[in-house]
Amino acid sequence: MQETDTQLTEKKRNQSTKQSSSHTKCGHLNYKPKTMYKVRFHLGAGANFMKWQVKNTDTNEVSYVDPSENQIAMMNATLKVQSSTAKKIHEGACKTVCAWIQCEAVQVLPANRLKVNDHDYRIQFNPKHCPDWINSWNGSVINNEEYNLIFTNDRSLYVVDGASDCTCSDY
């Protein structure tokens, strides 16, 4: 029995979705998604308490950055939150991981290398006070917002306003 054009197209589509994980629906044979990183403040007991945790989501490699010694610049960053967990913590449950910054690139710099400009603004997440990411400048909820650049300054986070340049101190 001869296959129709529709059947052949469907057969090709089924074969392409059965290919290895390096293949995608768009048909690019060597397409590999961008490496992503998750950055969060680590509050677990131990040697890395109150350090920034940086996790490579491709390799699951985890490193810790001491905020008193270094800053982190996060490019193409999105503020993520597990809303149901954050709400439970806000209502009195014990703290657990429920928020992070997902980004395409991370750069670790010496402390005080990046300076806060007039147009940059602080963002924060503390589910005991509010179960959402908050823009400290105007109090707005910013869950899932995307930014070109977020950086740490000690234990605080700042968004670099798109209209300004990042100022670096000289050595």
Widest beta sheet: strand line-up: 3-2-1-5-4-9-10-7-8
State the distance separating the first and last CA atoms.
77 Å
Classify the helix fraction into a percent range: 10-25%
What is the strand content? 35-45%
The global form is globular
Quick one: how many beta strands?
11
User: Uncertain runs with pLDDT below 50, 5 residues or more?
Assistant: 1-28
Q: Please tell me the total number of domains.
A: 1
Task: Please tell me how large the radius of gyration is.
Answer: 21 Å
Q: Taking all residues together, what is the mean pLDDT?
A: 83
Oligomer: single chain
Main sheet overview: 9 strands, antiparallel
The ordered H/E elements are: HEEEEHEEEEEEE
- The assigned structural class equals mainly beta
Helix count, per DSSP?
2
What's the structural blueprint in terms of helices and strands?
Blueprint: H1 5-17, E1 37-42, E2 51-56, E3 62-65, E4 70-81, H2 83-90, E5 99-110, E6 114-115, E7 121-126, E8 130-135, E9 146-153, E10 156-159, E11 167-168
Antiparallel strand pairs: 1-2, 1-5, 2-3, 4-5, 4-9, 6-11, 7-8, 7-10, 9-10
